[in-house]
Amino acid sequence: MACRRRRAGFTLLEMVVVLAIMGLVIGVASIRIFSMIESWRVRAQLDDIVGQFAHLPVVARQRGADIVLPPPAASVAQPAAGSPDEAPGFRLPDDWKITFDQPLRVRSNGFCEGARIVSEHEGRAYPRRVTAPFCQVTVTEGAP
User: Fold this and answer.
1) Predicted structure pTM score
2) Which of 105, 114, 120 is nearest to 72 (CA)?
3) How far is residue 104 from each of residues 24, 25, 99, 109, 114, measured CA to CA in Å?
4) C-alpha span between 10 and 67 (Å, rounded)
């Protein structure tokens, strides 16, 4: 009867092997999960930027003045002239940069003149087109 009790459990070696295999599987899976979470974060920030472009006509109507992105260098007194986060109603998330093929003008009546933009984050470019008359943002291929 004593022999049966010994054989009912697992040996230490079996437990170590199972734990090592579980550790490898969790390690491989966690890398994929973290990269997926990072891509979701970048996508959420990009969606926020798109939402801000769509909201610019409302801001221009509320202010009763045109909004120009990037702002003219003469109207910005800081060295970061030309960055969209200097404009009212527009704030870029950290580590993002936006370039324009031409100034994007949003009239005080809420109409947008449109432009091609490229949002850049960590070396990756996201080309978009801001279309007239309501600042709708659409995906484009290639840089402006």
Assistant:
1) 0.71
2) 105
3) 51, 49, 11, 15, 6
4) 72
DSSP 8-state class, residue 118? E
User: 51: helix, coil or strand?
Assistant: helix
Name the token pair of 124.
């990756």
Report the 10 Å Cβ neighbour count for 71: 19
Residue pair 49/90 in contact by the 8 Å Cβ criterion: no
Each residue's pLDDT, cut to its tens digit, for the chain (144 residues) gives 455 555 678 899 999 999 999 999 999 999 999 999 999 999 999 999 999 999 999 999 999 999 998 876 544 333 344 455 456 767 888 899 999 999 999 999 999 998 999 999 999 999 999 999 989 999 987 544
Residue 112 carries which DSSP code?
A: B
Q: How far apart (Å, rounded) are the C-alpha atoms in residues 141 and 134?
A: 21
